[in-house]
C-alpha cells in the first residue's frame, strides 16, 4: 500500500479524497480500500457525501472508488459531489434532504443506475443512488430524489398528488411530471454521456405550473401541497 496515494479530509457531512495523479488507477483502488479498512472503527456507520480531488476521473472510475470504500468499511455513500461544491453546507443539504425523504415520508432507496428500458415504480417516495439514463423511468406516488444525473423520465405524485416534487444533483430529464402537470425537454438525445457539472435542482408545482429551481431549503418550504397555496409566485 502506498500511504501517500490517498489523503482523506472530512467534515460532519462529507469526505474529500485527495488522490495522487501519478499512481496507476488499479493501485489507487487497492489503496483506497485498504485505507478505509484500517479506518473503519473511526468512521463506523456514517452516511456521507463524497468528493474526489487531485486527478480527473470518469464516472465509472468514481463509482469504482466509491465501491472500494463501501466494501471495506461501514460507510454509506449517499451521493458524489462535484469538487467545486465542497462547502459544508452543500454536503449537509445533499445528505439531509435525501435522508429526510426516506425517514419522514417512509420512502425507500434504490441503489444503482437505471438504464434505457428500465422502469422503477413504487408506491412510496424514493431516493435513487445513481443515474437515471435516457430511456429509463422513475414513477412514484410520492417524491423522487436522484443522487446522480437524471436524463430519463421522472413522474412524482403518480397518484395525482400535486404537492410532491422531483429533485436531482443533475436535472436533465427527457420528461418530468408532477401530479397532472408534465414538461418535456426541448432537446432530446438518443445518446448522452451524462458528463454534466453538479447543479442540484428541484421541480415542483407552484401556482398550477411546473417550476424548476436550484435545490435549497427555501424551495422545499415553498412546495405547494394539496389544499394550500404556495408562499410566493414566479420562478
TrEMBL record:
Signal peptide: none annotated. It comes from the Bacteria. Residues 110-211 form the Septum formation inhibitor MinC C-terminal domain. Gene3D superfamilies: 2.160.20.70, 3.30.160.540. It holds the Pfam family MinC_N_1. Residues 215-235 are annotated as: Disordered. Keywords: Cell cycle, Cell division, Septation. One of its GO terms (biological process) is cell morphogenesis. Residues 6-78 form the Septum site-determining protein MinC N-terminal domain. Cell division inhibitor that blocks the formation of polar Z ring septums. Rapidly oscillates between the poles of the cell to destabilize FtsZ filaments that have formed before they mature into polar Z rings. Prevents FtsZ polymerization. Belongs to the MinC family. Interacts with MinD and FtsZ. This is Probable septum site-determining protein MinC. It comes from Candidatus Merdiplasma excrementigallinarum.
Amino acid at each position: 500500500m502506498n500511504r501517500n496515494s490517498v489523503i482523506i479530509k472530512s467534515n460532519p457531512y462529507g469526505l474529500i479524497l485527495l488522490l495522487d495523479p501519478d499512481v496507476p488507477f488499479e493501485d489507487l483502488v487497492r489503496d483506497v480500500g485498504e485505507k478505509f479498512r484500517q479506518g473503519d472503527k473511526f468512521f463506523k456507520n456514517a452516511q456521507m457525501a463524497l468528493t474526489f480531488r487531485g486527478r480527473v476521473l470518469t464516472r465509472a472510475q468514481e463509482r469504482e472508488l466509491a465501491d472500494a470504500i463501501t466494501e471495506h468499511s461501514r460507510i454509506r455513500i449517499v451521493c458524489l459531489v462535484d469538487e467545486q461544491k465542497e462547502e459544508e453546507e452543500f454536503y449537509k443539504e445533499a445528505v439531509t434532504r435525501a435522508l429526510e425523504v426516506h425517514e419522514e415520508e417512509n420512502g425507500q432507496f434504490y441503489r444503482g443506475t437505471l438504464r434505457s428500458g428500465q422502469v422503477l415504480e413504487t408506491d412510496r417516495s424514493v431516493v435513487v443512488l445513481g443515474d437515471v439514463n435516457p430511456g429509463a423511468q422513475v414513477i412514484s406516488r410520492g417524491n423522487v430524489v436522484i443522487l446522480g444525473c437524471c436524463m430519463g423520465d421522472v413522474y412524482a405524485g403518480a397518484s395525482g398528488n400535486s404537492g410532491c416534487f422531483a429533485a436531482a444533483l443533475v436535472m436533465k430529464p427527457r420528461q418530468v411530471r408532477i401530479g397532472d402537470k408534465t414538461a418535456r425537454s426541448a432537446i432530446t438525445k438518443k445518446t448522452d454521456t451524462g458528463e454534466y457539472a453538479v447543479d442540484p435542482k428541484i421541480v415542483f408545482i407552484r401556482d398550477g405550473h411546473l417550476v424548476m429551481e436550484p435545490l435549497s431549503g427555501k424551495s422545499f418550504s415553498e412546495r405547494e401541497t394539496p389544499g394550500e397555496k404556495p408562499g410566493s409566485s414566479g420562478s
